């Protein structure tokens, strides 16, 4: 029933084979979507090479550099989509960053530049990419982002990223309210802790994972594939009535009080 054949999907945020974005890309491909992949360019081209080799089995029809702090690269990305595809159906936003110094220690000591960086990359980028995608989603569409429990609860060593995720979840609601008029749905997946390149910056990530395994109703954490399955569902017509929501894919941890 879950069929994305004929759908064009842009996936951002793949860094390596542990990335949640990689799990999502795999499941979209399995469902038949035509993929476009973006990567974060660097001076030596290491990320381009690494991501290109990883996604080769998915046969993406677009492979583009896109640093969301660079307006020209964002514009170029969506101009290429317009030229090559003509339309966009699915946008996967898996982008987050904060300086490691701003994750630990006292939250009141967060630097101005660190706060701005975290909010720009982790929160504003969803707004900006959604605005760029809007005119290309001529047949409606689905925009999906990744959040975490730290956006609604205080999590040790998360600090400014929690504020960024709270802003991200609010952005989901405001974007859903606006873009619903064009049959564009906007949702977030709140995944349980998974060992990724991004989560490695969070102090005590292994302790967090072990805690979830002990407390969550399913007595385990989740996999990239499980998050990818949920993203594929949200991108499909099976989720045609769902927008503005945060779906928890965390083995049930979010419901627990102790």
Please, could you describe this protein's structure?
The longest helix has 22 residues, at 112-133. This protein has 7 helices and 7 strands, in the order βαβαβαβαβαβααβ. The chain has helices at 20-30, 46-55, 71-84, 112-133, 160-179, 205-215, 224-235; strands at 8-11, 34-39, 62-65, 90-93, 141-147, 184-191, 246-249. With 258 residues, it is of the alpha/beta class. Strands 3-2-1-4-5-6-7 form a 7-stranded parallel sheet, with helices on both faces. The radius of gyration is 17 Å and the shape is globular. Pfam families: adh_short_C2. One of its GO terms (biological process) is fatty acid biosynthetic process.
Write the layout of secondary structure elements.
Elements: E1 8-11, H1 20-30, E2 34-39, H2 46-55, E3 62-65, H3 71-84, E4 90-93, H4 112-133, E5 141-147, H5 160-179, E6 184-191, H6 205-215, H7 224-235, E7 246-249
Parallel strand pairs: 1-2, 1-4, 2-3, 4-5, 5-6, 6-7
Helix pairs in contact: 1-7, 4-5
Features:
alpha/beta, 39% helix, 7-stranded parallel β-sheet
Q: Structural class of the secondary elements?
A: alpha/beta
The CATH architecture would be 3-Layer(aba) Sandwich
- Could you give a short account of the major beta sheet? 7 strands, parallel
Oligomeric grouping of the chains: single chain
Q: Strand-and-helix sequence, N→C?
A: EHEHEHEHEHEHHE
Number of self-contained structural domains: 1
Q: Mean of the pLDDT scores?
A: 95
- Beta percentage is 5-15%
InterPro entries: Enoyl-ACP_Rdtase_NADH, NAD(P)-bd_dom_sf, SDR_fam
Pfam families: adh_short_C2 (PF13561)
Protein name: Enoyl-[acyl-carrier-protein] reductase [NADH]
Keywords: Fatty acid biosynthesis, Fatty acid metabolism, Lipid biosynthesis, Lipid metabolism, NAD, Oxidoreductase
């Amino acid at each position: 029933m879950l069929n994305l054949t004929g759908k064009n999907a842009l996936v951002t945020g793949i860094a390596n084979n542990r990335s949640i974005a990689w799990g999502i890309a795999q499941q979209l491909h399995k469902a038949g979507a035509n993929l476009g992949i973006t990567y974060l360019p660097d001076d030596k081209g290491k990320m381009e090479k690494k991501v290109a080799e990883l996604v080769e089995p998915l046969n993406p029809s677009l492979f583009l550099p896109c640093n969301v702090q660079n307006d020209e690269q964002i514009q170029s990305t969506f101009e290429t989509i317009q030229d090559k595809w003509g339309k966009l159906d699915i946008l996967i936003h898996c982008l987050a960053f904060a300086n490691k110094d701003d994750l630990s220690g006292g939250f009141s000591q967060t630097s101005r530049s660190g706060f701005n960086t975290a909010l720009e990359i982790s929160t504003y980028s969803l707004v900006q990419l959604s605005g760029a995608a809007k005119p290309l989603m001529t047949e409606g569409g689905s925009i999906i982002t990744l959040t975490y429990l730290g956006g609604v609860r205080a999590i040790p060593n998360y600090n400014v990223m929690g504020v960024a995720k709270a802003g991200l979840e609010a952005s989901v609601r405001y974007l859903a309210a606006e873009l619903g008029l064009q049959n564009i749905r906007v949702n977030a997946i709140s995944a349980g802790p998974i060992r990724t390149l991004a989560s490695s910056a969070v102090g005590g990530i292994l302790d967090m994972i072990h805690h979830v395994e002990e407390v969550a109703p399913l007595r385990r954490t989740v996999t990239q594939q499980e998050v990818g399955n949920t993203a594929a569902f949200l991108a499909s017509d099976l989720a045609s009535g769902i927008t503005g929501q945060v779906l928890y894919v965390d083995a049930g941890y979010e419901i627990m009080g102790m």
